[in-house]
């Protein structure tokens, strides 16, 4: 039987030696090794060698499958199995095998070792096939937002939740990104939810985060003059819009009506 020093040497060669020599050494070590746990480690090292240093994605996927089976009986190798499963998901996705990628990530989730990045990657796969309810169920409990969650909230008609999430995410972002999130939320509040007060509040939050913007001031002014019935604030906002862009003749008519 192969001793532990020779296994360690083969594993070290896999990390730093000639990759072709390392692949032969790992296979030779695996053939001679009588320790099943060490065999699993050797298989995992060979899989990563094929993936990272030899560029053999198909071979790496097959080697990972073998390593996963070999590592299964050993609780001590649970972290290794999780890393292999993540590699398998990434390789499958790169190969266009979305179902295999899903299966690998779902295994991580079932084993209760999936991290937030794993769940977001899984949600992206769900979103690609239109499983928007599954995306929301997966991502809604996580902190923050993501494009996948936002698209799926919109696709499933959860516009109130989408509006709330966009506004909640904005303070965590740089000013320009925060402003864009507030403007998106304001548009949803005004156009889809029919909530002009909420829309106005969101526009007010967006205004200090960027340069004077005639369009934002105009939108705010029309909300105040119209649904909110606050003519003075509406006129003031439209005046700011015209000051920001003297070409905005469209704001002069409501301003004239006010005066």
Brief synopsis:
By secondary structure, the chain is mostly helical. The chain has helices at 4-16, 19-32, 36-52, 57-71, 78-94, 98-110, 116-128, 132-139, 147-155, 159-169, 175-192, 196-206, 214-225, 231-244, 252-258.
Blueprint (SSEs and pairs):
Layout: H1 4-16, H2 19-32, H3 36-52, H4 57-71, H5 78-94, H6 98-110, H7 116-128, H8 132-139, H9 147-155, H10 159-169, H11 175-192, H12 196-206, H13 214-225, H14 231-244, H15 252-258
Q: Mind explaining what this structure looks like?
A:
The protein has 259 residues and is mostly helical. Helix content is 74%, strand content 0%. Helix 2 runs antiparallel to helix 3. The model has no long low-confidence stretch (mean pLDDT 89).
Main features:
74% helix; elongated; 259 residues; mainly alpha; 15 helices
| Tally of contiguous helical segments | 15
Q: What is the string of SSEs from the N terminus onward? A: HHHHHHHHHHHHHHH
Q: Count the beta strands.
A: 0
Give the averaged pLDDT, no decimals.
89
Shape: elongated
> Roughly how many Å is the radius of gyration?
28 Å
- Poorly predicted runs of 5 or more residues: none
Strand content: under 5%
Terminus-to-terminus distance: 97 Å
- Give the helix level as a range of percent: over 70%
Structural class designation: mainly alpha
Can you summarize the main beta sheet?
A: none
């Amino acid at each position: 039987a192969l001793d532990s020093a020779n296994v360690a040497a083969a594993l070290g060669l896999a990390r730093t030696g000639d990759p072709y020599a390392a692949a032969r050494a790992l296979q030779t070590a695996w053939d001679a090794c009588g320790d099943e746990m060490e065999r699993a480690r050797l298989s995992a090292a060979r899989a990563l060698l094929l993936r990272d240093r030899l560029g053999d994605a198909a071979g790496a996927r097959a080697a990972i499958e073998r390593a996963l089976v070999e590592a299964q009986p050993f609780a001590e190798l649970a972290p290794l199995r999780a890393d292999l499963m993540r590699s398998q998901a990434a390789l499958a996705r790169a190969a266009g095998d979305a179902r295999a990628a899903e299966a690998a990530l779902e295994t991580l989730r079932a084993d209760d070792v999936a991290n937030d990045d794993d769940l977001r990657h899984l949600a992206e796969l769900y979103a690609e096939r239109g499983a928007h309810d599954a995306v929301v169920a997966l991502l809604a409990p996580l902190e923050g937002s993501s494009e996948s969650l936002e698209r799926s909230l919109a696709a499933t008609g959860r516009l109130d939740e989408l509006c709330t999430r966009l506004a909640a995410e904005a303070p965590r972002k740089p000013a320009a990104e925060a402003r864009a999130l507030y403007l998106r939320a304001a548009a949803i509040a005004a156009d889809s939810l029919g909530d002009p007060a909420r829309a106005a509040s969101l526009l007010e939050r967006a205004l200090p985060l960027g340069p004077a913007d005639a369009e934002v001031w105009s939108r705010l002014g029309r909300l105040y003059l119209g649904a909110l019935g606050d003519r003075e604030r509406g006129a003031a906002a439209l005046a700011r819009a015209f000051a920001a862009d003297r070409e905005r003749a469209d704001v002069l008519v409501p301003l004239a009506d006010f005066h």
